[in-house]
Design a protein that fits this description.
The structure holds two protein chains of two kinds. By secondary structure, chain A is an alpha/beta fold. Chain A is built from 13 helices and eight strands. Chain A starts with 17 loop residues before the first strand and ends with a helix. The chains are: A alpha/beta, B alpha/beta. At the A-B interface, α1, α2, α3, α4 and α8 of A face α1, α2, α15, α17 and α18 of B.
Chain lengths: 263, 468
């Protein structure tokens, strides 16, 4: 298994590279606008983006529960769908971490190795591979709190975890700071887990809900209107809690902000 | 769903949270503040990450040459006049301690904090044989008076408020239940403990580090209680796990810089005492305990847990531990380190513990000896699934989900049939622990009128990549 807090290889993107768009199952069904924003954003850079229609799920819910037997089918199908692409981009930190770090029980064929090495979360792809320096089409006149998911921070290395000593960095903040009008607000516990945790949010409901509620209050206390994240699954949980409690916070994916919608 | 022998940390944590509006928020805030202090202390040391790496390497080296260092330690400790005993398991440890105490006619024993003695359930064993055992660490004494195990390996009573302690002392020591001044409560216990040190026939300690080169062991405390216990009574017995070995005295320069900073966010514990042989006129016994450690050393995925120096930083940083309280884990060791240690004692009993985690990974990053705690929690889930210890509800839904998600046609057929919500509605929302565990504290996420896939077919059909 790949260790936590690794950073990506800084590779160069060739002109004819084929980009496979990985839209995780819950985004497909519940947040199609995030998929649309991701696709449109990648198309703005004139990339050759394809979307394999046979994709289902990366296997994470089963794999995260230790159930590798039932995860294998989804994982093998993922490999089959994406093996011919040079890069696979998904707007979801935890799903990308699943592919990169936890596709380690299925047989490590050349295809599996290729996929594990070339699947990127959207922010790290824009920041580290495309090295995007402006989003002239985007404008967002709101105060924003960033929620970098734990998978993105400690699994993919898109921001420095507070526990690790060294020079702070935050790739999501770097990208969002290039959007006209957007004001980033600091929060008290930027990288304390929000309590989603996949199946954890229902098997450990009380702890999960308490964590999510504190997260929402942290965002609210600092005057955030929007919470923006590279991981919609955390936001699905946080949004559910904010609505239940009647807190006036809005939750959107970083792709929507960087692309200028759809909202 | 849970068997009577199985610990249910989620349920216990729920009780801790719902108990009142005071305990859980206080517990979370205190430990968070401790983490903030730890971060500041670590940041003040430019070579912090290098120290972690060196500490990890020293521990890995020692653990992979453990037989050599254990014998070197025994030889040097014996040379300095200590009696060294070997205990295969908890029962042997307790029997050895009891026999030493019996030989010396000890009726009352004063001990400092030791997770190993807790692990061996030594206190009840000795009490059942007529030996009075008094905890001298303030937190441990509070827990002992309340009939509870420690809830944190460094702050044993951290789940209690000072009002709780005032009421407990009123009940057990006879103080005013309405006076919860911490200074008064501490002074009360200090005065209560003093005569016990004088009355005790033996003092017991644990050991934070055992140095092979000199046969020395170190005990790090803040209250000085271990030092009095080791110095006043004529007999000193120390219980030390075999994983506590380090090769040389100079290695302490690495570990001492990491330990208190990681544990409490302070540069050093108040007392860092070296014990090398018995004091003049005294007697020193060292019991080296295995109790499952050598078996753990043979587990390829889990042996790194033996590097642990019991600082508790993983507990302080753990968002789940902070909301659960340590007693929710129903085990000697709680928090992330407990999740990976406890199953090595009883896989079935502790099979739910690896699921009491969001896998956020903070424990791995904070660990001063770089144990891959989060990855080990993940791997323990695999073990539990392979052994069939997954809760039945989870297993059933995954069998169906696994089949559907592995077959594109089935998946997309269902998607268009029933509406996305009911088909996938992320299946993690569907299997239930209690009635609708998603909806009790959260609104149901909005269901889109059109999936991304269908949008794509309508808007980008000319580009659609259909492989095969």
């Amino acid at each position: 298994m790949t260790t936590q807090t690794e950073t990506i290889n800084q590779k160069m993107l060739s002109k004819n590279a084929r980009i496979g768009l990985f839209i995780p199952c819950y985004i497909d069904m519940m947040f199609p606008e995030v998929g649309i924003a991701t696709l449109q954003l990648l198309e703005r850079f004139r990339l050759n983006v394809g979307y394999p229609l046979n994709q289902t799920c990366c296997g994470q819910p089963m794999s995260n529960s230790g159930d590798e037997v039932n995860a294998a089918g989804a994982e093998l199908l993922f490999v089959e769908n994406f093996k011919s692409y040079d890069y696979i981009i998904g707007p979801a930190g935890s799903c990308v971490k699943q592919v990169r770090c936890h596709f380690d029980v299925i047989e490590q064929t050349a295809d599996v190795k290729h996929i594990r090495q070339h699947t990127y979360e959207l922010v790290e792809f824009l920041h580290g591979i495309l090295k995007v320096d402006s989003f002239p089409w985007a404008e967002f006149q709101h105060s924003v709190a960033i929620h970098n998911s734990c998978s993105s921070i400690r699994g993919l290395g898109i921001a420095k975890p507070s526990e690790i000593m060294g020079v702070p960095f935050d790739k999501t903040a770097d990208l969002l700071s290039k959007v006209k009008g957007l004001v980033l607000v600091p929060v008290d516990r930027p990288d304390d887990c929000c309590g989603f945790g996949g199946t954890f949010c229902v098997t450990d409901e009380a702890v999960s809900a308490r964590m999510g509620l504190e997260k929402a209050h942290d965002h609210l206390r600092h005057g955030a209107e929007y919470v923006v994240s590279p991981d919609m699954s955390c936001l699905m949980h946080q949004q559910g809690i904010a609505r239940h409690t009647g807190l006036a916070l809005k939750y959107i994916h970083v792709a929507q902000v960087l692309n200028g919608g759809p909202f | 769903m849970s068997n009577a022998n199985q610990v249910d940390p989620a349920k216990a944590a729920e009780l801790f949270i719902l108990h009142d509006q005071i305990h859980e928020p206080m517990h979370d805030r205190f430990l968070w503040a401790t983490m903030q202090r730890r971060d500041a202390e670590a940041a003040a040391i430019p070579e912090w990450e290098e120290l972690r790496e060196i500490a990890s390497k020293i521990k890995e080296h020692t653990l992979t040459h453990l037989d050599h260092y254990l014998e070197e330690f025994e030889e040097n400790a014996t040379k300095r006049g200590a009696h060294v005993h070997w205990a295969l398991d908890a029962a042997e440890h307790n029997a050895i301690v009891y026999s030493i105490l019996k030989d010396h006619g000890v009726e009352e024993l004063i001990k400092s904090k030791s997770m190993l003695q807790e692990e061996c359930q030594m206190a009840p064993f000795l009490q059942n044989r007529g030996i009075r055992v008094i905890e001298s660490d303030l937190g441990e004494r509070i827990q002992q008076l309340d009939g509870q195990p420690p809830s944190h390996i460094v702050f044993p009573a951290i789940h209690k408020t000072r009002q709780d302690v005032a009421r407990l002392f009123a009940r057990t020591v006879g103080t005013d239940p309405n006076n919860d001044d911490p200074h008064l409560l501490t002074e009360v216990m200090r005065n209560n403990a003093r005569p016990r040190f004088l009355a005790a026939g033996a003092g017991m300690t644990g050991g934070n580090f055992a140095i092979a080169e000199t046969g020395t062991f170190m005990v790090c405390t803040n209250e000085g209680n271990a030092d009095i216990g080791a110095s006043v009574p004529p007999l000193h017995i120390a219980s030390i796990g075999i994983e506590k070995l380090i090769p040389r005295v100079e290695d302490m320069s690495v570990f001492l810089r990491l330990l208190a900073r990681s544990a409490e966010g302070v540069p050093l514990t108040q007392y860092s005492s070296h014990f090398t042989g018995p004091r003049k006129g005294g007697e020193l016994h060292i019991v080296l305990v295995d109790n499952g450690r050598s078996r753990r050393l043979g587990m390829p995925d889990f042996w790194h847990s033996l590097k642990c120096i019991r600082c508790g930083a993983c507990m302080n940083t753990c968002p789940v531990y902070r909301r659960s309280g340590g007693l929710s884990y129903g085990a000697t060791y709680s928090g992330p380190i407990g999740v990976i240690l406890d199953p090595t004692f009883d896989e079935f009993k502790y099979s739910e513990l690896p699921f009491h985690s969001t896998l956020c990974g903070s424990c791995t990053d904070v660990c001063p000896v770089k144990i891959d705690i989060s990855d080990q929690i993940f791997k323990w889930r695999r073990v539990m699934a392979e052994k069939g210890y997954l809760p039945l509800t989870k297993r059933l839904s995954f069998a169906v989900a696994g089949r559907i998600l592995g077959h594109s046609e089935e998946y997309h057929a269902m998607e268009s049939l029933a509406g996305p919500a009911m088909v996938l509605a992320p299946h993690f929302l569907l299997y239930n622990r209690s009635l609708n565990p998603w909806g009790r504290s959260r609104e149901i996420p909005p269901i889109a009128a059109q999936t991304f896939r269908n949008w794509y077919l309508e808007n980008r059909s000319e580009h659609a990549d259909i492989e095969q």
